[in-house]
Design goal:
The chain folds into three domains: 7-73, Winged helix-like DNA-binding domain superfamily/Winged helix DNA-binding domain (Arc Repressor Mutant, subunit A); 78-163 and 274-297, D-Maltodextrin-Binding Protein, domain 2; 165-272, D-Maltodextrin-Binding Protein, domain 2 (3-Layer(aba) Sandwich), CATH 3.40.190. The chain has twelve helices and 13 strands. It has helices spanning 7-19, 22-28, 33-47, 63-90, 103-108, 110-120, 136-141, 188-193, 204-215, 230-238, 248-256, 286-297; strands spanning 52-55, 58-61, 97-102, 126-131, 147-150, 161-173, 186-187, 195-199, 222-227, 244-247, 261-263, 265-266, 271-277. It is flat, with a radius of gyration of 23 Å. Residues 5-62 form the HTH lysR-type domain.
Length: 310
């Protein structure tokens, strides 16, 4: 038997915390109370924790239960984003809202935004194209999509744009890499001279790095390996291939868990704006405007999780 908690048990735990009653939580999920009680007991055995305190006044989460419920809620939200994003990829033809997004934005931000939009408009038919920042303007100008998201250093010429999030690039290495033990910041010349695991040309991440190095008077970076997504770059660094410059969005959890180490760099600025762009000079209307409003309410600006790029 798998030791992973099942999703229905996680939903049940979250609901018990919300309503303070196992019977009411079970009713909301269409479960008989004995079945719900068995589910919670199985979840507690699998996690090795007492999650629910059962009293005459009802069921209350323990301290451990409240902590697990918070994590369970995040898992459920991430799953909702995954399913929404996958559905948007399947239904990109004849969609009521057609969206194009650069790779990093599509991987880490768009599923959550679309999930929120679909909760507001469950009938909405959304199509998503995932590409690099260089191609998003072409899709907008051709009329293939209604709204785009890019991570390039500058907004495309002739297209209205609005900042929807702030991101920064980090130099990251595996814990066993010599840079992980540095006591001094990495110099920009050292970064420019080092073979790096890089995103492909045309991506916003690569364009941001190239421009930052040029502004610092350096040549373009030396590619050790060029890959087509932030996830692929992250995995290559974790495997010990070499250092990389990557969005903090892609490695926040890895930095917190020490699977990767951020290396401080001096003499270069690697911050960037993530933007929504569209083809018309007129204000957006309908589903595209609603999605833009969602992004403004849920700005996932990255927090400081490791070394700072100066």
């Amino acid at each position: 038997m798998s030791q992973l908690p099942d999703l229905e048990s996680l939903r049940l735990l979250v609901l018990v915390g919300d309503v303070g009653s196992l019977s009411r939580a079970a009713a909301r999920l269409g479960l008989a109370q004995p079945s719900a009680s068995k589910r919670l007991s199985t979840l507690e055995r699998r996690l090795g924790l007492v999650l629910v305190e059962r009293t005459r006044r009802g069921s209350q989460l323990t301290d451990a239960g409240r902590a697990v419920a918070v994590w369970a809620q995040q898992v459920l939200q991430d799953l909702d984003g995954l399913l929404t994003g996958a559905e948007a990829l399947r239904t990109k033809r004849d969609a009521e809202l057609r969206v194009a997004a650069s790779m990093t934005v599509a991987e880490y931000l768009v599923p959550g935004w679309l999930g929120e939009l679909r909760r507001m408009r469950p009938e909405l038919y959304v199509g998503l194209q995932v590409t690099n920042s260089e191609h998003v303007p072409e899709l907008l100008r051709s009329g293939a999509v209604d709204l785009g998201f890019i991570e390039s250093p500058q907004a495309p010429a002739g297209l209205p744009a609005r900042r929807v999030a702030h991101d920064r690039l980090l130099v990251v290495v595996a814990p066993g890499h010599p840079w992980a033990r540095r006591r001094r910041p990495l110099g920009v010349a050292e970064l420019a001279a080092a073979p790096l695991v890089l995103r492909e040309r045309g991506s916003g991440t690569r364009e941001t790095l190239d421009q930052a190095l040029r502004r610092a008077g350096m040549a373009e970076p030396r590619p050790l390996l060029e890959l087509g997504s932030a996830t692929a770059v992250r995995n290559a660094v974790m495997a010990g291939t070499g250092p990389a410059v990557i969005s903090e969005l892609a490695v926040r959890t890895d930095l917190a868990d020490r699977r990767l180490v951020a290396v401080e760099v001096e003499g270069i600025k690697l911050h960037r704006a993530l933007r929504a762009v569209w083809a018309s000079e007129r204000p957006l209307a309908g589903p595209a405007a609603e999605l833009l409003a969602v992004t403004r309410r849920h700005r996932p600006d990255v927090a400081t999780t490791g070394a700072t790029a100066r």
